[in-house]
Automatic annotation (TrEMBL):
InterPro entries on file: Formyl_transf_N, Formyl_transf_N_sf, GART, GART_AS
Official protein name in the record: Phosphoribosylglycinamide formyltransferase
Keywords: Purine biosynthesis, Transferase
Catalytic residue list: 103
Species for this entry: Tenacibaculum jejuense
Amino acid sequence: MKRIVIFASGSGSNAENIIGFFQTKETAKVTHVLTNNERAKVLERCKRLEVNSLVFDRETFFKTDEILNFLKKEADLIILAGFLWKVPENIVANFPNKIVNIHPALLPKYGGKGMYGNHVHKAVKNNNEVETGITIHYVNEHYDEGAIVFQAKTTLNEEDSVEDIAKKVHELEYKHYPKVIEDIILSE
Ligand code: GAR
C-alpha cells in the first residue's frame, strides 16, 4: 500500500476526487494533504473526509528542510493538485519521478509561471483555440516542464465561456487523474 501525499492550494476538488478513488483501492491511499493556504477550501474537505492536513508557510517551505523531512518519512508519491507554489529544489532532488502535477491545458502550450487556473482558460479563450485539455507530468525544477505522462483533449466552441472551459477541463481531470496516478504506482 503506497502512501500518497497531496499538495493543494485552493478548492481541492481534485484532491477530494483522488482521496475518494483510493478509499476503495488496495494500491494506495491518501494519507495527508499539505497546503500553503490556511483559508483553502481543501482544508474543509479534509476535515469532512477525515484526512490529515498540514498548513505550511513560505519560510518553512523554501528556507527549511521541515517539509522535505516530513515527506521522506510519510510519502511514497507526491501529487500536486492545484498547488500554486514551485516545489523547492531540495524536495525535487529527493523525489525523482515521485512528484506528479496536473496542468489544465495541453503543455507545452499555456504553461509557465502565472499560468494556473482561470488564467490558463482565459488565454485559451482569447486565442480562439478549438481544443484544450489536461497534461499530467512529472515535476522537475522548472515550472510545467517535466516529462509528460498523459494528455487528454476536449473540443471547444466559440460560445464556450471561461467557466465552460474550466468545467470541461475539470471533467477530464476527475476522469483521468486518479487512474493515471494508479497506473504510475502499478508500473513501479
Ligand atoms: C485544476 O484545474 C488544476 O489543473 C489547476 O488548478 C485547478 C485546481 O482545482 N492547476 C494549475 O493550474 C497548476 N498550474 P481544484 O482545487 O478544484 O482541484
